[in-house]
Structures are given as structure tokens and as C-alpha cells.
Amino acid sequence: MQFDVIIIGAGAAGMMCAAQAGSRGRSVLLIDHAQKIGERIRISGGGRCNFTNRSVGPENFLSQNPHFFRSALAQYGSADFIKLVESHGIRYHEKTLGQLFCDDSAQEIIAMLESECDAGGVKWAQPCTVEKISPRQGDARFELITSQGKFTCASLVVASGGLAAPALGATPFGYQLAEQFSIPVVPPKPALVPLALPPETLATLKPLAGLSFDTIATCGRHSPAFREQALITHRGLSGPAILQISSYWQMQEYQPGKKRPIALNLLPEQNAESWLEEHRKQNVALASLLADTLPRRFAHEWCAMQGIARPLAELSAKSLSQAARLLNEWPLMPSGTLGYTKAEVTLGGVDTRALSSRTMQATAVPGLYFVGEVVDVTGWLGGYNFQWAWSSGWVAGQHV
């Protein structure tokens, strides 16, 4: 069968693209290998889908080509998607830092996208495995051999996702297809992922697993500062602050030079030096003071790790200065991440320098488009990755 557009991947970006192309009168086939569509949407946000953020800008994304995502976000932003959600009568609420969630269920977002696809006359092949893709001459530029037969199309959109959440069917399909057409791929890595700690650090912290604390996480001078919770786990650190900074720690793999540790500010409300100066004459241990701000067990173990057991009044000026530096910038060098099984998204992907930022089309392969997580664009935690899916899918849908 011949179609104007075939889209591989019925996730957020794929369904958005299909709906848009169908609304323009294009004949569209949406292919997915999974038994159930939209599983990443369904489980996101604790089952309520953090579908976008009130405030979305280029500063909320990472890529080796840091200006690429500006065009798509300008063409279709969070306000546009919010209007779509409202037009379907989906009730939602705002949590911290502008994050928007469905009041009831993430299934409402899936149903909305299915409805939009149905309105555009989109055809479905699912579950369906793509076995081979070959370029062709003429108007039907691509031929697909699948488990449901042979299809041809003029425009082929790859929305197959990254490597995060392999239990939900993540595969390297999109990267392999890009390489088949000589399109470069930035090596993928787990992102928004818990960090593992080396044995010597973990030995002290592991008994504290389950404790969380407020912190500001950074990684090097040029990373953003993320003020959120960090969580101690049996293998290292997790929690929103850690997931956010993990992407920047991973980004260093693409850069020459020595990898930097992450840094945690344990007194985000205080200048530690001034705070210690206020209390330095007290005959009290630092751990006891910190227990007013941090979990008591963590405060005592942290002070033991740093060798700060004596009362403040007995510490030298040098020791107090060193303690202040550590409190406001505690360096920790992770031993790695917990991998794709625990990652929210994938860092890296199809090199955006080979794509048009205005259309998402591969500049060297007319008719071939890449959208969503398969592309080297990674958002922060908080609805940004879904917004990239909506924006990139919408843009491609206008041009296929």
C-alpha cells in the first residue's frame, strides 16, 4: 500500500506528527511494534502525565547543537499544547516549578492524541515490526518491508524514541536507521538518571538510604543550579535535584578534558561561612546544628565523613573555612549512572546538525524526518521532554 506519510513510533512525537499530517489531508500510516500505544505517556508523572511546563525555553534543553530546538519551540510552544488539552476538556493542575499534570489520568492524553489522529484519517499498523527500509526512485521515496506487508511513502518520519525504559520496548532502531542513511548519531547515554557512588562513599551513605534533603545541585561553573530534593539510595543518589544534574554530568562525556564531580549545597538558604561565624563560639558540635536543617542521621554521618566531630568553639579558623566550603559545595564524583532501566530519557541521538531545525527533515535525505527523543535534544525534568515531542512532531507534521 502507498501512503503520503509513514511514521514509525506511536509515542508522543509520532502521534502528534501523524495527527498534524492527517489534518492537512495527507494519507498517513502510523506504525508501532508495541502491543499497547503510548506506554511512556501512561506511566509518566505517576500515571498523571507531566505533559508540559508553563515556562519552556531553549535554556531548558541540552544538545551538541544548542540552538537547534529554538525554531520548533517558537513554532509550537507549551501554550499551544495547553490549548489543545483544554479543547478536549482535560482538567489539569500545576505543581512546583510550572509542571502541569492531568487531574485524573495520563490515559486522557493518549485518548486525546488518538482522537486527533482519527480526525485526520490516520491508519494504524500495530503491533507491527519494520524489517527493512529501502530508498526508491520517484514519488514514493521509501519502501518498508514489515510484519504486516510492504508499504511505500513519499515522507518517512522516525519517532521511535531512545534507549530509556527498555522494559517498555525501547530499541536503537532510530539510530540504526540514521546510520543506514549516513546520518551521524551522537552516542546515546542515560539521562535524568540516578547516580551511583564509589564504594568508599557509599559505605557511609548506604545505611542512610531513604533519607532526602533539600539541596542545590551543580556540575561545573556553567551548569544550571537545581534547587530540589536529593534522595540517598542503596546505590548512590536520586531525587529531582540529582536527576536534573545527571544530564549535565553525562554531557561531559562529549567534551575533552577531565570529568568534573557534581556539587551539592547542603545549606541552600545560607552562606555557610557567615552561618558558621554566627555559631563559632558555641560549645556545640556542627552535626547538632546541622540537624536543625538536615536529617539528623545524615548530619552526623556527613560530619564524620569530613572529620568534623569537635565543638565549633574548638575548631580553628582554617577548619571552619574548610567546613563552610564543603557545606556550600560538597563535591561528589559519581562512579556512573544506574543505566537506561532507571533513566527518564536518553541523552544524545540523531545529530541535529544533519537536520533542518525548521522542518526536522534530514538535509541530505529528502523526505526523511526525525522527531522526539531519537533526536539529540534532551529536556530537563518537569514536562520539557514531552514538550519537545509535541513541538518537533508538530513541526514535522506541517512539512511531510
CATH topology of the largest domain: FAD/NAD(P)-binding domain
Uncertain runs: none
Query: How many distinct domains?
Result: 2
Quick one: how many beta strands? 21
Distance between the terminal alpha carbons, to the nearest Å?
18 Å
CATH class of the largest domain: Alpha Beta
- Tell me the CATH architecture of the largest domain: 3-Layer(bba) Sandwich
Supply the CATH superfamily name of the largest domain. Answer: FAD/NAD(P)-binding domain
Q: Number of helical runs?
A: 13
Look at the structure and give the mean pLDDT. 96
Morphology: elongated
Helix content range of the residues, please? 25-40%
* Strand residue content: 15-25%
Radius of gyration from the alpha-carbon trace, in angstroms: 24 Å
Largest sheet: 7 strands, mixed
Structural class: alpha+beta
